[in-house]
Amino acid sequence: MAEQHSSPEQAAAGKSHGGLGGSYKVIVYEMENFQGKRCELTAECPNLTESLLEKVGSIQVESGPWLAFERRAFRGEQYVLEKGDYPRWDAWSNSHHSDSLLSLRPLHIVGWLR
Fold first, then answer.
1. Residue 5: exposure state from Cβ atoms within 10 A (0-12, 13-18, ≥19)
2. Which CA distances in Å does 26 have to 23, 35, 96, 101?
3. SS3 10
4. What burial class does residue 86 get, using C-beta atoms within 10 Å of its C-beta: 0-12 exposed, 13-18 middle, 19+ buried?
5. Full-prediction pTM beyond 0.90?
6. Which one of 28, 72, 100, 110 is separated from 89 by 20 to 30 angstroms, measured CA to CA?
7. For 35, how many CA atoms within 13 A lie in the half-sphere containing its CB?
8. Distance CA 8, CA 34 (A)
9. Rg of the chain's alpha carbons, rounded to an integer?
């Protein structure tokens, strides 16, 4: 979970790992309302429950955006998480089928905004 470093070429082009010059950071909590065991991520994680957490109860996106997936290995329903607090699963999902979130990856923004 070490932070990824961009190359000088990416930084010069304004395309470092945080989109247009930013960085990625998310804090994932095992329980709702930012309680219990926590894990800080700055890079993708294909399986949050393998050794990090038993489940995901809440999320704080400090910088991003991030793409969250209901299943391991970036599969299943996807959710875009922008900067902010997600105190329980229904804050990031409207799904009545699943309350799980098992993998996360930074959402890389390519190109320039005008």
1. exposed
2. 10, 15, 24, 14
3. helix
4. buried
5. no
6. 110
7. 4
8. 36
9. 14
Instruction: Show pLDDT as tens, one digit a residue, over the chain (114 residues).
Output: 433 333 333 332 233 344 455 699 999 999 999 999 999 999 999 999 998 899 999 999 999 899 999 999 999 999 999 999 999 988 888 766 667 899 999 998 887 666
Give, in order, the Cα–Cα distances in Å from 52 to each of 1, 27, 55, 105.
11, 12, 9, 15
Kindly report the CA angle at 99 between 23 and 74, in degrees rounded to 5? 45
Beta bridge partners, 78, equal 69
What's at 31, amino acid-wise? M
Q: Which helix (H) or strand (E) holds 22?
A: none
Longest dimension (CA), the chain: 44
Instruction: State CA 66 to chain mean position distance.
Output: 4
pLDDT in tens, 21-38: 569 999 999 999 999 999
CA 52/CA 55 separation, integer angstroms: 9
